[in-house]
């Protein structure tokens, strides 16, 4: 779309890309649709072939203990998070959330009966979380440590060594669960694969993972995700889903089987398609005065620090909202970092067509022409 006909507001705020669904997946769904007779209804925990394909893919990623019965297929990743949180949270329990983190976690935790306690991390050290910092933040009320890896919104990938450091702490707390949201795990621009939490020793059976198909596997709008948990927890989740809903339709599940089997190729092609817009946005952000170059090894977001552009007379959360409103008035929608626990930062998606990104970045530059404070 040429800049002249660009919409009044271009969104860099959506969490979903504009990728076409993978052909292998749509073909698998089409085959099911074209078969004669009514659609079969799957068991609530998911089609055996999907649970088996997922278990196999985790085994290949080093999670040798994952078996099909640990996997429960859900109507999206949010549903998987909710099922797990509801299964493990008791009245008064807290979920420790290193921040910045995905804005959706706050309400999920509250609706599942818990309370979020944020553990603020700093952009200055690229959001490092030292084991001793984690230990100091744990209280008798902490039931779950929840993190996203890669992190939404920062794009930070936590390495094997970092996660091993955290687990050396969490293993001292027998009632504590560790939950990793790995939905962006396929979209990484570094040669190292993103380590899955399930590939670490879990002698107390306390590690849980959620993932889905709407990010790294381009099945946007197909409403399918899953959880992987120790057997008793997976069974509680499946029983809860059975009582309150129904199985994910088999069309989506067969599409997911195909996407799982072709996951590396699908993610590789997404990464390739994202390179030009990633490079374009990175170049543009480097030109903004008083904005440190954001580091992001993964996802399709940058999370620049725009604190120099906050109105100094406002308190941080109000100032952050005012900044986002100012950018909206110049024609670009962004996610307010305050909703992720980091006022003054914004989340920008580059999973948009270049023809939209160009005018969006122009508007961003116009909206950020004058910093309020010296660096
Ligand atoms: C970290 C994270 N987890 C979960 C979700 C929800 O994913 P789904 O669309 O599969 O429900 C999102 C969506 O933005 C996300 O960013």
Overview of the structural elements:
There is one protein chain. α2 (48-60) packs parallel to α8. The mean pLDDT is 96. This protein has a seven-stranded mixed β-sheet, with helices on both faces. Strands 9-12-11 form a three-stranded antiparallel β-sheet, with helices on one face. Strands 1-10 form a two-stranded parallel sheet. It has helices spanning 23-34, 48-60, 77-88, 104-111, 131-137, 160-170, 231-244, 250-261, 263-286, 316-329, 354-367; strands at residues 10-11, 71-74, 94-99, 115-120, 142-148, 177-181, 207-212, 225-228, 301-302, 332-333, 335-336, 346-349. It folds into two domains: 3-17 and 265-367, Aspartate Aminotransferase, domain 1; 36-261, Aspartate Aminotransferase, domain 2. The protein contains eleven helices and twelve strands. It starts with 9 loop residues before the first strand and ends in an 8-residue tail after the last helix. β5, α6 (160-170) and β6 form a beta-alpha-beta unit. Bound molecules: pyridoxal-5'-phosphate. Pyridoxal-5'-phosphate binds next to α3. Residues 15, 76-78, 102, 104, 148, 152, 181, 183, 212, 214, 225 line the site of pyridoxal-5'-phosphate.
């Amino acid at each position: 779309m040429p800049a002249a006909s660009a919409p009044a507001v271009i969104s860099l705020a959506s969490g979903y890309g504009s990728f076409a669904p993978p052909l292998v997946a749509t073909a698998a769904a089409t085959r099911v649709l074209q078969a004669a007779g009514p659609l079969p209804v799957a068991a609530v925990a998911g089609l055996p072939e999907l649970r088996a394909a997922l278990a196999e893919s985790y085994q290949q990623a080093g999670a040798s203990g994952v078996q099909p019965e640990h996997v429960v297929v859900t109507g999206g990743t949010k549903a998987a998070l909710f099922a797990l949180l509801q299964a493990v949270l008791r009245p008064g329990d807290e979920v420790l959330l290193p921040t910045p983190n995905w804005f959706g976690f706050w309400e999920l935790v509250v609706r599942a009966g818990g309370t979020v306690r944020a553990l603020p991390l700093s952009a200055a050290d690229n959001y490092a979380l030292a084991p001793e910092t984690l230990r100091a933040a744990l209280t008798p009320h902490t039931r779950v440590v929840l993190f996203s890896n890669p992190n939404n919104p920062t794009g930070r990938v936590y390495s094997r060594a970092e996660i091993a450091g955290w687990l050396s702490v969490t293993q001292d707390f027998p009632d504590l669960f560790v939950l990793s949201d790995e939905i962006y795990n396929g979209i990484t621009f570094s040669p190292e694969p993103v380590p899955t939490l399930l590939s670490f020793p879990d002698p107390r059976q306390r590690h849980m993972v959620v993932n889905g198909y709407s990010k790294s596997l381009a099945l946007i709008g197909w409403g399918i995700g899953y959880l992987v948990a120790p057997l008793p927890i997976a069974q509680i989740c499946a029983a809860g889903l059975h009582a309150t809903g129904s199985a994910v339709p088999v069309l989506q599940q067969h599409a997911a089987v195909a996407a799982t089997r072709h996951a590396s190729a699908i993610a590789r092609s997404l990464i390739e398609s994202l390179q030009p817009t990633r490079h374009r946005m990175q170049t543009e952000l480097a030109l903004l005065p008083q904005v440190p170059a954001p580091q992001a090894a993964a996802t399709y977001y940058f999370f620049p620090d725009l604190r120099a552009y906050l109105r100094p007379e406002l308190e941080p959360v109000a100032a952050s909202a005012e900044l986002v409103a100012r950018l909206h008035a110049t024609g670009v929608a962004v996610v307010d970092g305050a909703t992720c626990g980091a006022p003054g930062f914004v989340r920008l998606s580059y999973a948009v067509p270049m023809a939209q990104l160009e005018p969006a970045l122009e508007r961003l530059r116009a909206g950020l022409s004058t910093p309020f404070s010296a660096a």
